[in-house]
Amino acid sequence: MPVVTSSLSEDQQKKLLSLLGHVRLHLLYKASVHGFTALAFHNRCDKQGPTVIVAYNDAGFVFGAYTSQDYTQSGAQVSDEEAFLYSMSAGGNKPLRVAGINRQCAFTDEATGPNYGALVFLHEDNAKIKSNPGENFTFQAAEMHGEDLALTEFEVFRVEGLGDLLAKPWRNICWTAERKQQLMKNIQSYNPEIKTVQQARVSLVGPVGAGKSTFFNSVNSVFRGNMTSQAIAGTAGKSVTTQFRTYTIKAGKGGGAVPLILCDTMGLEENAEAGLNIEDLVNIFKGHIKDRYQLNPLMPLQMDSPGFKKQATLNDVIHCVVYVVDTCKVSLLTQKMLDKFVDIRKKTNTLGIPQILLMTKVDEACPLVAEDLKNVYRSVYIQRKARELSEFFGIPLSCVLPVKSYSEELELDQDIDILLLTAVQQMLNYTDSYFENQIIEEQEMIDQQELYRSNDSIRPVLSEQTKHHV
Description:
Layout: H1 10-20, E1 23-30, H2 31-34, H3 38-45, E2 51-56, E3 62-67, E4 77-78, E5 84-88, E6 96-99, E7 107-108, E8 119-121, E9 129-131, H4 141-145, E10 153-161, H5 177-188, E11 200-205, H6 212-224, E12 243-250, E13 257-264, H7 278-285, E14 293-294, E15 320-326, H8 335-350, E16 355-360, H9 362-365, H10 367-371, H11 380-393, E17 400-402, H12 414-458, H13 464-469
Parallel strand pairs: 11-13, 11-15, 15-16, 16-17
Antiparallel strand pairs: 1-10, 2-3, 2-10, 3-5, 4-7, 5-6, 8-9, 12-13, 12-14
Helix pairs in contact: 5-12, 6-12, 7-8
């Protein structure tokens, strides 16, 4: 999935945020990528809540409009006391902010480009604006856009309030050295319910750049006691991981293996011709794909191929599936990507595999968490994102786990370790659920066979006379 980024400079973003308050911006629409048309705008920006428009021109102006109301194409004139127009010029220090005229509407909610009266964006489905100072908003054209009506770029962001910290955390986490050691001990001493299985096998599944490989490297670093980079990780727009890989974690350099195998795959992409093929993913879950098999998005592995393992045991199958999602991009998950996740969820449910979801990069998503990781379960914003993901994926909120992986650090951090280890502990708990279901199913089969045998043993033997009458 190609990464779409804003054209705002760091300084311009800071100035814009100074007008909006304690919020985070999520890019919904970029005209140079999605098209300079009203249809493209509405397809991505309708019913998104508070939004801010960012328009660019060759005169060096960055200007636009903020509204707290939805675009819905209702045809109505929408009132919004919080709406305003703004402008940042190339040489200006302080952005211009223009409030609406008292008792006039903020914008007309129609199927055209955003129409704020004084400024009409994407006018006539072109890369230009129509300027009518005095209609709903009053300004000097030279100050607003330098009288340059042609657009070089046009973007729309969803504006999400970060809120304050909750009075009480929505989950209780013990952030002590003793808790970290207890988690490590529990994980290292884990024994699967089924004695023939030696290690829990957990598959990491998520979009390109979500942080699957980085998560493994981080967990490995915790148990090794220093930073490691065994799995290839990167920030490219396309998946860095191209093979199916199974990674064993060792406790200390040269130490024994932790009873957990983390399986990494190519990242998911919204297009069918790119990223991990869902047929391959199902074969991974069933234990049919060998380690280091080179994944091909266009050609799923066939049964007669060398990389296909026909005889799969409980040691080969996946015992828990972990979806990995970048918290910063929750609002940017496309319908195609969500549909792909729904398809994977259905197939995984059919296989009876428990599933959880990791919210990565929580520190990048919320400044309050970046300031202190212990705020992760007190952040209003993180809690909101967790609930959104729970709803998107159809996964209980209890199965959604915020984590921060190691990305720029050179030394281990106790708080980061505790979040990572808590996630691993939950993976093992859910793996136990998978094994318990296998034991129950096996016992039911044995009971059924015994019932048949019992019925056979008490079946009456018919005499020749009885047979004749029958």
